[in-house]
Amino acid sequence: MSGFKDKVIIFAHPRSGSTSLFNILNTHPCLHLSLEPFHEDYGQWNPFFPIS
């Protein structure tokens, strides 16, 4: 599936195992994931998303 680029957003309640799911999915070499991209401080702790 070369060039296959679907985007998915997974919303989860706190303490529901979402970080564990992130860690499991993040082991796949073809997936590019962001943990908490909607957090207000995302740009401060993510070097790939600089604040302009």
Looking at this protein, list some descriptive labels.
single chain, 2 helices, mainly alpha, 52 residues
What is this structure's SSE topology?
Elements: H1 18-25, H2 42-45
What does this structure look like?
The chain has 52 residues and is mainly alpha-helical. It contains two helices and no strands. The protein has helices at residues 18-25, 42-45. It is globular, with a radius of gyration of 13 Å. The protein starts with 17 loop residues before the first helix and ends in a 7-residue tail after the last helix.
Overall geometric form: globular
Largest sheet: none
Q: First CA to last CA: what distance?
A: 35 Å
Let me know the number of strands: 0
**Oligomer kind:** single chain
Proportion of residues in helical segments: 10-25%
In terms of DSSP E residues, the strand content is under 5%
Query: What Rg, in angstroms, do the CA atoms define?
Result: 13 Å
pLDDT average, as an integer? 78
Briefly note the structural class of the backbone: mainly alpha
The SSE string, one letter per element, is HH
Regions with little confidence, pLDDT below 50 for 5+ residues? none
Q: Total number of helical segments?
A: 2
Summarize the structure.
The chain is mostly helical and 52 residues long. The protein has helices spanning 18-25, 42-45.
